[in-house]
Amino acid sequence: MTAKILVVEDEPAIALGLKNDLLLEGYRPEVATDGDSALRRASETAFDLILLDVMLPKKDGFAVCRDLRRAGVTTPIIMLTARAQESDKLLGLGLGADDYVTKPFSPLELCARIKAVLRRTASSLTERVRFGSVEADFSRGLVKRSGQSVELTALELKVLAALVRARGHLLTREQVIDSAWGRGVAISDRVVDNHVMNLRRKLEDDPGEPRYLISVRGLGYRFENPDDEQTKS
User: Fold this and answer.
1) Three-state secondary structure call for residue 20
2) pLDDT tens per residue, range 188-204
3) What residues contact 26, with CB distance under 8 A and at least 6 apart?
4) DSSP label at 183?
């Protein structure tokens, strides 16, 4: 399945050019022309990547990026802007963007950046794992318990994936935040604890005595599979 990309650009000529370039590369682009519609579409629809212009009507790209991350949307974001100041780049990355491309840019450069971000995203969630009665397929975003689908939020899935990938090793809360929310995102330790508690409630037989999502007092969390039924693909 080719990647579905949301292009957020209010200049019609630029939006059309980006859409045509992406079509030529085999992607499935969709265009939004203002910040409000971009926020709505990205919240309602599963995109593989968002190309997000900074200067937009109704809500600028920084605000869109911030609101998406606050809402738990983890779709990779590449910000596009004519503003080359380092402070703007740092702001975008700090709000949760995955990359930042300054206009004017060549289609080849942008394509390379898109492929790099998609490659990082794909490689981070390629495992399947089974523990107890739980089966998780992170590449498809599916989790089942005793054969029944379990509804996890996007962030709960990311937290679970981070712990599973580090199986047997401690992850500090800061490391969980970096993996699930993104580097530089200001999230309190309590938010991490709440997500782990929700995962235990949904996946553990006895959330009060967890077998898989283990607390390391004062440090963080560790995923263990005492049944040793993990599989990778």
Assistant:
1) helix
2) 889 999 999 999 999 99
3) 2
4) T
